[in-house]
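Lab notebook: predicted structure, single chain.

Context: the supervisor wants predicted structures on file for every construct in the current expression panel, including those that have not yet been purified. This is the next one on the list. No modifications to the sequence; it matches the entry in the shared construct table.
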Amino acid sequence: MLIEIWEWLRGYRRWTPTEGRIEFLKEEHVYHDKDGEELHYTHVTGQRLVWIDARGQPHSAPVKKLDDPQYQVKDGEIEVIRYNPATPMSSTAGSFLE
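Prediction complete. Output recorded below exactly as produced.
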């Protein structure tokens, strides 16, 4: 309830709704074992929220990495957010953004 009051006071109800997608940032590593076989290893280095504004411009912002399993996000997960058309990098996805 408090978050809704805070968002109302900030004027978020006038912001443009859109869908944001969670993307994992990954590093690919290739190692060779003693027999010369390739071993592929992928390491997740971070997460970001990606969305398109009403003008068709893409935006992204880093996502907080939370240790609580209740707040874990998945690669490709869709979140409904609102962004300020005057400053599209502002969004209501504050619980996810760093």
